[in-house]
Amino acid sequence: MDLAGHIAVGRTGELGALGSGRLPKPFNDHMHRVIEPALALPAGSAILDAGCGAGGVARWLAEQGAHHVLGADVELPLSAATGGPVPVHGGGTVELRRCDLLDLSTDRPYDAVLLLGVLHYAGSAEGVHRMLGAADRLAVPGAPLALSWICDEITLTYEEAFLPGRELVLGTLAALGREPVDLWARDVRHAHGGSPEHEHRIVYGVWRRAR
Ligand SMILES: C[S@@+](CC[C@H](N)C(=O)[O-])C[C@H]1O[C@@H](n2cnc3c(N)ncnc32)[C@H](O)[C@@H]1O
C-alpha cells in the first residue's frame, strides 16, 4: 500500500475474484470516494490523472467507466509509457505518458482531472499555485477536480518536506472559482523506505467551479 492508501491494481482480469456483477473495488474507500465523480461521468469521457504513478487508477477508470484516460507522470518509467491511447476491456482507452503536468496542452480540456497524492511534490506555495492553476486550465468548466495530498497539520519530524496547508489549497482553488463539494481527511501511520514510523494527515476532496 502506498501513501495515497491504495493497493496496486492489475488488469481487470486479475480482479475477477471480487465477484461477478459487482464493481471491483481495488482501492481503499477514500480513493473510491474521491474518484467516484470521475467514474460516474458518461462513458467516453476524457479524464486526466495527473501524477498517475504506475497508472493503476487511470487504467481502472478506463476499464470500469469506458473512459478515455490520460495518466501523466513526470517520473513514469519509459518502459511503462504506452506511446498513445490503448484500448482496454469495456470500450475505453488508457494512455500512460511521461510528462510534467505543467507542460500538458490545454487545447482539449478534460471532463475530470485527478491530482492524487501530488500536491506535496510542489515544493512551495508558488508550486502549489502552478499545479492547481494547470489542473484548473486542463478541466472543462463543469469538470470535477479530485485531490488528495499530505497536509501540514501533522509535522514530518524525520525529514524536510513542504506539506501544503488546507488554507493554501482551498484558498488557491477558491481564487480559481472552485468550491469543494466533498472534503474530508484521514490520518495514516506507517513506515516506508527505511523511515521511522510516522503519521500523515491526508486531505481528500472534490472541487467544482462555482462560477
Ligand atoms: C505519491 S505519487 C501518487 C501517484 C498516484 N496518483 C497515486 O495516487 O497513487 C505522486 C506522483 O506524482 C508525480 N508528480 C509529481 N509532480 C508532478 C508533475 N509536476 N507532473 C506530473 N507528475 C508529477 C510523481 O512523479 C509521483 O509519481
Description of the structure:
Strand 1 (46-50), helix 2 (56-65) and strand 2 form a beta-alpha-beta unit. With 211 residues, this protein is α/β, with parallel strands linked by helices. The protein has helices at 29-39, 56-65, 125-137, 166-175; strands spanning 46-50, 68-73, 86-87, 93-98, 112-116, 145-151, 178-190, 198-209. Helix 3 (125-137) packs across helix 4 (166-175). It is globular. It has an 8-stranded mixed β-sheet with strand order 3-4-2-1-5-6-8-7, with helices on both faces. It is built from 4 helices and 8 strands. The protein has one domain (24-209): Rossmann fold. It binds S-adenosylmethionine.
Characteristic key phrases:
alpha/beta; binds S-adenosylmethionine; disordered N terminus; single chain; 211 residues; 4 helices; eight-stranded mixed sheet; Rossmann fold; 27% strand
